[in-house]
Amino acid sequence: MKPALLPWLAASLLASSAPVLAAPQANAEGAELYARHCADCHQPNGEGLSGIFPPHRGHVGALYAARGTPDGRHYLGQVVLNGLTGPITVKDETYDGNMPAWEGALPPGEIAAVLNFMLLELDPAGLPDDFRPYTAEDIADLSREDLDGQDVRRLRQGLDRFGEQATPTVAKAETPAEDTTPLPLESLFPQAIQVAVQNSGLVTVLPSGEAWPGIEGAHYDALSPDGTRLLVSGFKTGNVYLLDARSGDVEATLPVGGVAQGVKISPDGRLGLAALPDGNRVAVIDMEEGVLIDQIPVGPEPHNSVFSEDGDLAYVTLQGGGAIAVVDMRQLAKRDEIATPGLETPHNLDISADGRRLWIRDFVGRVGVLDLETEEMLKTLAVGNGHGGIDVIPGGAYVATGAIADSTISVIDARDLTLAAEVEVGSGPHGVRASRDGRYLYASITADDTVAVIDTRTLKVVARVPAGGAFPFWIAVPGNP
Ligand code: HEC
């Protein structure tokens, strides 16, 4: 979604750049940082997504101006440094998500630039007369406080005009009846998800339960960044299917020259990749034309891939090679190979939001964390038995992995690289993907034919939803490739 919207952002900046002219330099940097790091959730125009991501436009100036001890200026710096967790109200709408922490991921100067952009560009009218742009030093000072997202929410409650509304958590805790009432299904799926249901040859859309048949062996699936197209590999069929992700119509059936495993779509939506373990290659698909355009030799038994944020590189697990192949997506050629000591059978993988780490799941029951700069395996951990999917949950606190020969989802604390929880979900969890706000984690439970929904705040299963067929294998979620 991001790259497609960038021209739009540029246009909107040009159209409303009056307050920016005073500091063109700082603002160009802030605009770029905002587009890269914030716009996926808060949207390029800063208008947010109703009920999911709060708006910045027409709102953040008032937050900045809010009085309290500490005040709004202090609060905003802490939100970006340390994130925000728990219910808040913005323009009469309740939000109950996770805002990721950026301390460590962005240097103080960049956090200052993005805050200044957000305030000056998205809510200039709301700013008080004594507005002072943030400096790198201001942010470095704020970062001395050791806070987490819940502490930051308490800071927000201390602000005049923003404090009193945000009490639903307390109300809930005092009313036991509410705790036991099942949540409406829609609230657990801020966006519809697509579940590849292998043995039934279909894709099921949840929460609606709509089924798209005719996709033989539906195995791995991947959504384009703009959510309009779905790529699905066919188990044992040698085909990859290209679907219209709104209607479920199959637009193309592509014989890719071997049995395909994991599929992914590039961040600009133009190229699809399918891992072909038998041929030791990845197939490259032109998503516009719906045709196979290349096959890149990568090494023994490629299984799945993940793109770097800019789409220039793809990292491919080599299940037969104990390594990750690094593929140059401009040249369409393998550039490098990184060994994964401690993981002999790298199977599925995901990349951290800052692009610095690969989280790799093997075929037998371990997860490894690979530093992409030093090419060092930072740690490997034992998780559930068998292979499974792995997801860096948006927000950055947790990484979750399935285990097809087990009944648990292992949740790893992404900061200290330890196991945070083993969540009982039912027999044979494989695919795992979180909603793009990081609030809910979905797991396909292959033997129970369900999708389990885990609340990432409590790490408890809050729903089990029928998958609409046998052997739900993988899950595609908009905004979390
Ligand atoms: C993964 C999605 C996501 C990303 C990326 C993200 N945010 Fe947020 N942000 C949220 C959510 C969700 C909330 C509301 C949290 C809650 O409900 O407690 C939020 C809240 C905020 C708030 C507080 C608003 C208020 O009314 O108190 C600010 C400020 C903010 N974000 C700024 C940013 C900036 C700046 C960036 C980029 C550096 C960014 N966000 C990136 C999801 C995101």
Automatic annotation (TrEMBL):
Keywords for the protein's UniProt record, in alphabetical order = Heme, Iron, Metal-binding, Signal
Which sequence ranges are marked TM in the entry? none
Q: Which residues form the signal peptide?
A: 1-22
Keyword hit for Transit peptide: no
Q: PROSITE patterns, per this entry? A: CYTC
- Coiled coil start-end: none
Q: Per its UniProt entry, which superkingdom is the organism in?
A: Bacteria
As one GO molecular function, the record gives: heme binding
SUPFAM superfamilies in the record:
Cytochrome c (SSF46626), Nitrous oxide reductase, N-terminal domain (SSF50974)
Which ranges carry the Cytochrome c domain? Answer: 25-122
What InterPro entries does its record include?
Cyt_c-like_dom, Cyt_c-like_dom_sf, Host-pathogen_enzymatic-act, N2O_reductase_N, WD40/YVTN_repeat-like_dom_sf, YVTN_b-propeller_repeat
Q: Which NCBIfam families match?
A: beta_rpt_yvtn (TIGR02276)
Question: Could you identify this protein by its name?
Answer: Cytochrome c domain-containing protein
Which organism's genome codes for this protein? Halomonas beimenensis
